[in-house]
Design a protein that fits this description.
The chain is of the alpha/beta class. 37% of the residues lie in helices and 20% in strands. The protein is globular, with a radius of gyration of 18 Å.
Length: 277
């Protein structure tokens, strides 16, 4: 499919996501930068997912549909087949926003000393209506060491060396496998570079596994995993670290910019405004 290895390897992990997966696939295949491969790992779906995947199989680097132990296992399986230099993933019910890969490629060339990049997030409904915009702060050693790591899963682009060096995703984790990975990146002395663009549309809906985590009232199993990975990675969440992260968002202007973006875009269809991002 490629004369040389692609810059990006993108994995979609799916299980019974037939309602949204075609939109996710199209959001990747329509990227302005074609220097990527797309891999889909389906967990043995019983809905119309496989039928949709087969519709696009001639454009995929690899895909499979078989029972697995969960999302972490699916990601590991997909990235084991990856040939790209940088890894990226998209949930099957979410969207990769236009020009994301173009902006990512530009950042990689502009900051060759970095092997980990992250961008910003727009939250949408199951009808593609914008709920809110979220911009994260840049890297600050003390804030990162003592508070949350403001990196949302599919906004993160990381070199394959980081993934291989840290052992990939922990198959035992159901909710916090991405945060656990970020903590291990940090423990291996890697820092991210913030790309001040929106890359990811996260869809909030009742069947989403992690929508509750953004509600302010995450479920008990999510909380237990948070405590577990915090202890395993020696990464405490302190009030000082949490408040400092938010202060950095205010001082750096990202909080106010996100508020402004939300005021301008809330209620609009995501495909109507992507040209302005």
């Amino acid at each position: 499919m490629f004369n040389k290895p692609p810059l990006f390897s993108i994995v979609i992990a799916n299980y019974n996501g037939g309602k949204f997966i075609e939109q996710a696939i199209q959001s990747i295949l329509s990227q302005s930068n074609p220097d990527f491969e797309l891999i889909i790992v389906d967990g043995g779906s019983t809905d119309n997912s496989v039928e949709i995947i087969k519709k696009y199989q001639h454009k995929l680097a690899w895909w499979i549909s078989e029972k697995d132990s969960g999302q972490s296992n699916a990601f590991n399986k997909g990235f084991a087949k990856a040939k790209g230099e940088f890894y990226f993933w998209v949930n099957s019910d979410d969207l990769l926003l236009p020009k994301s890969l173009e902006y990512a490629k530009n950042a990689i060339h502009k900051y060759p000393d970095f092997k980990w990049f992250c961008a910003n997030t727009i939250f949408i409904t199951n009808k593609n209506e914008i709920i809110k915009c979220s911009r994260g702060p840049g890297w600050h050693d003390f804030a990162i060491e003592n508070g949350p790591i403001y990196v949302f899963g599919p906004t993160s682009i990381f070199h394959k060396e980081l993934f291989d060096e840290t052992g990939g995703f922990n198959d035992e984790l159901h909710y916090t496998m991405d945060t656990d990975l970020w903590m291990r990146f940090k423990n291996n002395n890697y820092k991210f570079k913030r790309i001040d663009r929106y890359f990811w549309s996260f869809r909030i809906h009742k069947f989403s596994k992690t929508s509750h985590s953004f509600s302010g009232s995450p479920n008990e199993n999510f909380r237990k995993e948070q405590i577990l990975i915090s202890k395993r990675n020696n990464h405490p969440y302190t009030r000082v670290g949490y408040y400092l992260q938010n202060i950095l968002k205010i001082i750096g202007g990202t909080y106010l910019l996100a508020k402004y973006d939300t005021m301008q875009l809330k209620g609009k269809q995501i495909n109507e405004i992507t040209s302005t991002l």
